[in-house]
Design a protein that fits this description.
Layout: E1 13-16, E2 22-31, E3 37-42, E4 55-58, E5 61-66, E6 72-84, E7 87-96, E8 105-108, H1 109-112
Parallel strand pairs: 1-8, 2-7
Antiparallel strand pairs: 2-3, 2-8, 3-4, 5-6, 6-7
Length: 129
């Protein structure tokens, strides 16, 4: 799975049909004063494409989502291209700290709907580039 607009490739991701939207591990997430831009650092030093560069993008929306532990939290969403199995689609991605999670990226059902069929009996199917 890759985020070509952000120059991040071969990101480990979990397909989660229970999650509505996609999310990516970020830190140092900050909004501009007028809330039109978001500043963040993507992933961490363990990923080969990590470069400690601050990324600036337009805010797509800010909304409350239910996190994996069941609590509601406010999240900032961006719109970006997401590539999976050689197919690229523009999608909403929430920015969040996923340090405690196994995978830095979560792919939710909104991205998958009408594009992919999920076979839960299979693991680790996407080839690395």
């Amino acid at each position: 799975m890759s985020l070509p607009d952000l120059q991040f490739f071969d990101i480990d991701a979990k397909i989660d049909t229970g999650a509505f939207s996609c999310s990516i591990h970020c830190d140092d997430i900050r909004l501009s004063e007028d809330h039109s831009k978001v500043y963040f650092r993507l992933l961490d030093g363990s990923h080969p494409d990590y470069h400690d560069k601050e990324i600036v993008m337009d805010v797509h929306k800010i909304t409350h989502v239910k996190s994996s532990n069941g609590t509601r939290e406010e999240r900032i969403f961006i719109m970006t291209d997401l590539e999976l199995y050689g197919k690229v689609f523009k999608t909403e991605v929430s920015l969040t700290d996923r340090t405690a999670m196994t995978y830095p990226m979560l792919i939710g059902r909104k991205y998958l709907e009408d594009r992919f069929i999920v076979d839960v009996s299979l693991l680790y199917q996407a080839p690395k580039k």
